[in-house]
Amino acid sequence: MDGENWEQTLFVKSADDDGEPVALQLSADVRRTYYQLIDWVPHSRLILAGRGLMANSLWVDGVPLVTINADSGEVRDLGVIMLLTREAYAWQPGQQPLLAMAEGAGRFLTSNKQLIVLDIATGSSDRLTPKDQSVFEPVWSPDGKWLAYAANPARPDWQDNGEDMERGLSGRAIYIVDAQNPDSGSRRPLTQPGAGIDGWPSWSSDGTHLLYTRQTGNNVEIHRVSVDGQQDEVLVDGLDDPPCFYSGCRWFQFMSYQ
């Protein structure tokens, strides 16, 4: 923002040479349209981005997703809305640009978040979960066939503030679903959290187990569960409840599963 200049420009430069960057104008006036970059679309020259206004209160409620062509600057609307946080989406392993995401507007995780798989190339999408569930933290199995995610009964009228929000997430469990055949009856819960809150699923490299967190009050455990749900063991206990925000707890900053 320089004087009367309100343009937003994307600069794209190869890291392999000393050439000048290419400048692509995204918006003539950021007071009307502003783009926030999210990620590269795998195996492509497309960039995933959110389109909104210069107002933080709007961005925390989720914004429409677009792709930006890094060669031409062309912007294409994807027809979906997502919270702009790493815990809301995951790319399928492999060559296809398939995006699993918790789709829906609103900053609170207690409602209006369904699991969809979006084909970035065609714009088509498949909805994998019912509307009476609120979904977050999708993650693909290593072979790209299954999706694990955290889900709780949708509570659209819940008072979403502080401790009330945590009570609204009570009973959130880890589920898995066959992403290639979502109507086959494969969707099922893997965990039984009781009054706890299960979250942040992560697959083992061989696809036989998942790691996940369980929050009960101010105590957090890390569990490992088999994909058939028959074996569930506590690996770590006594962790402090991490600082959480509207869009999740950012467990990826604290742990990973090899």
What would you say this structure looks like, in words?
The model has no long low-confidence stretch (mean pLDDT 88). The protein has 2 domains: 1-78, no CATH class; 85-258, Prolyl oligopeptidase, N-terminal domain (Methylamine Dehydrogenase, Chain H), CATH 2.130.10. It has helices at 56-59, 163-168; strands at 8-12, 22-27, 34-40, 46-52, 63-69, 75-82, 89-91, 98-103, 114-119, 125-127, 133-140, 146-153, 173-178, 188-189, 197-203, 209-216, 219-226, 232-240. It is built from 2 helices and 18 strands. The strands form 5 sheets. It has a 4-stranded antiparallel beta sheet, with no helix packed on it. It has a 4-stranded antiparallel beta sheet with strand order 7-8-9-10, with no helix packed on it. A 4-stranded antiparallel beta sheet has the order 11-12-13-14, with no helix packed on it. With 258 residues, it is mainly β.
